[in-house]
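I hope you will forgive my troubling you with a question about protein structure. The full record is reproduced below for your convenience:

——
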Amino acid sequence: MVVGVQPGALTYADAMNGPAARTTRVSVALCTYNSGRFIDTQLSSILDQDLPVDEVVIGDDGSTDGTLERIASIAATHPRGRVVRVAFTEPSGGVVPNFSRTLAACTGDLIALSDHDDVWRSDKTATLVHRLLAAKHPAMVFTDARIVDDAGSFRGTHLFASYGVAHGELDAIAAGRGAEALIRRNIVTGATAMLTRDLLNVGLPIPEPFVHDEWLAFLAASLGTLLVENRPLIDYRVHGSNQIGIPPRSPWGQARVAMSGRRGRYETLHARAAALHDRLVEQGSPAPVLALLADKAAFEKARATMPWFWPARLPGIMHRYRSGAYARFTHRPSLEMWRDLAQRM
């Protein structure tokens, strides 16, 4: 179902100067699934941007709650509603396949990712476009966010704080060492991010072991530029229906997560490192990044093949500790050592 497309690029002279700004087209990849409670607020916040977007491409994962009717109503009544386009309405099979299809349907030079239940600040587009136009491509920029509840009330904390993001991680990304930070864990939330067309061309298709934001962020950090905007530019809604949530911060919660997955977790981490390595080889990535990923793959493969009898794991664990591999490849080295020792294989 096509709600409508507004032809031609919009002028960005109000936000920045130069011919690149005036000819750059911005798409928004907005994925929906039974979004009727939130889509009015989110879609309106996107259409009300100070720097207008050229298209909002919606990929619907088979909604049955009137989401598509709400989208059509907003597109018909909002002054900028002509830019809304529904690319497909049949199930894609989950968040990552839905985002992959929706991203592929976007035509802009810059593409912002959007969840269906958040709210954008009015200056989000102008801020991120400005950052990306000055960056070495391929590039991606992500931001902090305010955490709000189901009703949209601020919960008193922000996304980076909820993830326990350290200044050192953000400093590493700002200094161009994003791959070294992201090899330990992903801190990029796709709902806050915008990327360039050349990054999307490199990133698609997104392989199955990955969440889309983690995959695209690592590619940007390895091939071009990964940028961070420390200001919160969206309200990130946390509620009972989130498909991807914020990890627990309590020691008990972290221990519970640490003991989940068993051998399959290590195999997945190995597969992710191998997939990144293979894609970056195709793109001529710098040798240090390829070496980093090869070492990460070997680290996770060794963990995936640990003996089932826990005392027999000790030599491997001590070797990884003495070599600095836990500190290099994991976010919480002590917790990961404990996991390797205690987890049932």
Remarks:
- The chain is about 45% helix and 15% strand.
- The chain has two domains: 19-237, 251-342.
- Residues 1-17 have pLDDT under 50 and may be disordered.
- Residues 203 and 219 are 7 Å apart (CA to CA).
